[in-house]
Amino acid sequence: MVTQNLIVHLVFSNPTVGAGSAGSVVASRLSEESCVSVLLLEAGHAAPLLNDVPAIGRSFLFTDIDWAYKTVPQKNTGESLVNR
Fold first, then answer.
1. Which of 6, 9, 24, 55, by CA, is between 20 and 30 Å from 41?
2. Cβ proximity of 39 and 16 under 8 Å
3. Looking at the predicted structure, is the pLDDT value of residue 3 above 80?
4. Which of 13, 46, 19 is nearest to 31 (CA)?
5. Strand runs (DSSP E) across 1-84, as ranges?
6. Residue 82: its pLDDT value, please?
7. Is 78 helix (H, G, I), strand (E, B) or coil?
8. d(Cα 84, Cα 82) in Å, to the nearest integer?
9. Looking at residue 21, what is its pLDDT?
10. Signal peptide: which range, if any (predicted)?
């Protein structure tokens, strides 16, 4: 984990915000160039080790870890995941 104090003293040519699927790919592609420095930032704090145990995943609902995003209707899903 990179601390804020470390980041203050470094300069990056390509800061990338969001380590989701797109952000990770963008950061990876940019870092393939040796002359480029990349910083990939993700929201939130370090996840507790309990996140690695799938059986207790539901215990994190409605906590500060759960951002409570809802799905939106998608064509051809049969509404099986709407608002879940």
1. 55
2. yes
3. no
4. 13
5. 14-17, 38-41
6. 60
7. coil
8. 6
9. 79
10. none
